[in-house]
């Protein structure tokens, strides 16, 4: 294996969905994984499942002091991070802007934007020293607006554009940057978005044959497995059952 190939990945949001599937995928393929998230019981279960190639760090990614403490507490074996997978994120609410909760908007910005840039900024020196890589999870919502998408789409547009800008800034360092923009995938995403409405989640995904967390983990791992001279800039992917619709037009009377 090429010595520049990343070997230790820090995955934010590894207690569910894409992040948990990615933790399994990377460990199955011989990597070491640092798995983060707020739910300690989920992290403990992952530790029991995946063994000592996994290090778990339980913290709220919006808590900068907790994030720094978790990084400072990394065992030496895990301290050389080669790949940062910025995956933790969420949507909150499906209402149009005029009916949305400001608290939901702030939660999305704090998680999807502020926490992501804070962790990235913190790890850049390590990633540059190791000629590592960053993979950011954005969304099709970054490009295609839909009603009720408001701040979620805005936060993901930030993630996509930040990724491209990061790539430009890291020119010549050997650090690779990729943004992955998935469409509909069945995870806990919609239960979280609806503040716990499993019925709404089942209704959204029912009969739609959505992508799975494993589909996205496979894509993430494929990106990470490319040779060092190759940078995948961005990937947009959807289930075959999902596509585009036209503009809406409001008519008087
Ligand atoms: P899940 O809800 O299944 O998983 C989200 C993960 O993010 C959980 O592990 C959760 O951990 C973590 N997380 C959320 N908030 C915080 C926080 N404050 N601190 C620490 N961890 C946090 O959703 P997905 O796997 O679907 O989502 C992963 C990413 O993919 C998100 O960025 C999402 O926006 C994006 N995405 C999802 C799509 C989909 O259709 N599912 C499509 C496109 C993009 P915990 O709750 O334990 O803290
Ligand atoms: C999640 C996909 O379509 O719900 O990022 O915005 S969508």
UniProtKB/TrEMBL annotation:
Asked whether the keyword Oxidoreductase is assigned, the reply is yes
Which keywords are on file for this protein? Oxidoreductase
Q: Which domain of life is it from?
A: Bacteria
**Gene3D superfamilies named in the record:** NAD(P)-binding Rossmann-like Domain (3.40.50.720)
Q: Which Pfam families match?
A: adh_short
Listed InterPro entries: KR_dom (IPR057326), NAD(P)-bd_dom_sf (IPR036291), Sc_DH/Rdtase_CS (IPR020904), SDR_fam (IPR002347)
| Domain called Ketoreductase: residue spans | 7-187
Q: Does the keyword Electron transport apply?
A: no
Q: Which PANTHER family match?
A: ALCOHOL DEHYDROGENASE
| Family membership | Belongs to the short-chain dehydrogenases/reductases (SDR) family.
Q: What is the protein name stated in its UniProt record?
A: SDR family NAD(P)-dependent oxidoreductase
Say which species the protein is native to: Thermomonas beijingensis
């Amino acid at each position: 294996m090429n010595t520049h190939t990343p070997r230790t990945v820090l995955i934010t949001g590894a207690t569910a969905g894409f992040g948990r599937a990615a933790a399994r995928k990377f460990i199955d393929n011989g990597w070491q994984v640092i798995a983060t998230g707020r739910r300690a019981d989920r992290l403990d279960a992952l530790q029991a499942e995946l063994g000592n190639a996994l290090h778990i760090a339980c913290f709220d990614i919006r808590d900068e002091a907790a994030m720094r403490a978790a990084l400072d507490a990394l065992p030496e074996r895990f301290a050389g991070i080669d790949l940062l997978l910025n995956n933790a994120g969420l949507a909150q609410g499906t209402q149009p802007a005029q009916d949305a909760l400001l608290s939901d908007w702030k939660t999305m910005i704090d998680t999807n934007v502020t926490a992501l840039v804070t962790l990235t900024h913190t790890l850049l020196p390590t990633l540059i020293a190791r000629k590592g890589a960053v993979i950011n999870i954005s969304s099709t919502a970054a490009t295609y607006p839909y009603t009720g998408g408001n701040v979620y789409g805005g936060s993901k547009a930030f993630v996509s554009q930040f990724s491209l800008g990061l790539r430009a800034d890291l020119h010549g360092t050997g650090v690779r940057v990729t943004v992955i923009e998935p469409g509909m995938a069945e995870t806990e995403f919609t239960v979280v978005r609806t503040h716990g409405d499993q019925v709404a989640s089942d209704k959204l995904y029912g009969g739609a044959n959505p992508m799975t967390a494993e589909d996205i983990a496979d894509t993430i791992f494929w990106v990470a497995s490319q040779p060092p001279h190759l940078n995948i800039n961005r990937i947009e992917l959807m289930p075959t059952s999902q596509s585009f619709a036209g503009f809406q037009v409001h008519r008087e009377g």
